[in-house]
Each structure stands twice: as structure tokens, then as C-alpha cells.
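seq as requested:
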Amino acid sequence: MAQAQPVLSDAFSQVTKQHREKRKLSRAAVAEMSGLHQTYVGLLERGERSPNLDTAKAIASALGISLGKLITEAERAQIHRR
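C-alpha cells:
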């Protein structure tokens, strides 16, 4: 049976969490800076929700990184997980 391919949104969740932890930010802090609810940030990090572009941009801004760089890192992480 073939393995399921990693989904970009899963990699995005992983990279987002890594950046948050690297900056020693709580989910609550990222939520406040991005205008999102803390619970939603947790759902995103666990891969239970996928952000739309506006939400992804807000998260990237809260983490001090460009959305393009965040997506590029997620794409690389996705490739490495295959």
C-alpha cells in the first residue's frame, strides 16, 4: 500500500510552530499579534485547520517572517518528509 504524501498544510503547521517556539512566543502571544483566537492558533499548529491566505499572512507577520519565506520553508519541509 502506498504511503500518503505529506500535505503542504501539515508542513506549514510544523514550520509555523517551529518559528513560534524559536522566538519563544506563546500561542496566546501569536494569537494576539495576528488578531486570531488562541484556540485557532493551536488548531492550526496541530494541523486540524488550514489557514486561508489572509490568516497565513497574519501569522507570518506575527512571527516576524514574510509569508513567502514561511511557505518556502513549508515546501522544503514537505519535500524532506516524503
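The domain at 8-81 is CATH 1.10.260.40 (434 Repressor (Amino-terminal Domain)).
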